Amino acid sequence: MCPAETYVKGLGKPDCREHTDEQQRFCGIARFSAILSYICGLKFQALASKFSKETYLYWYELMLLLRRFEEKTGQLYGMQKIRGFCHLYIGQEAIAAGCMTATNPDDKFITAYRDHALAIAKGMTAKSCMAELYGKATGCSKGKGGSMHFFGLKENFFGGHGIVGAQIGTGAGLAFAEKYKGTQNVVLCFFGDGAARQGMLHETFNMAMLWDLPVVFICENNHYAMGTSVSRTSKTLDIYKLADAYEMPSDSVDGMSPEEVHNAVLRSVNRAREKGGPTLLEIKTYRYKGHSMSDPQKYRTKEELEEYKEKDPIEHTLRILQRDFQVTDAEVETIQNRVKAEVEESVQFAEDSPWPSDDELLKDVYIQEDYPFIID
Ligand SMILES: Cc1ncc(C[n+]2csc(CCOP(=O)(O)OP(=O)(O)O)c2C)c(N)n1
Ligand SMILES: [Mg+2]
Question: Is residue 376 over pLDDT 80?
Answer without folding.
Answer: no
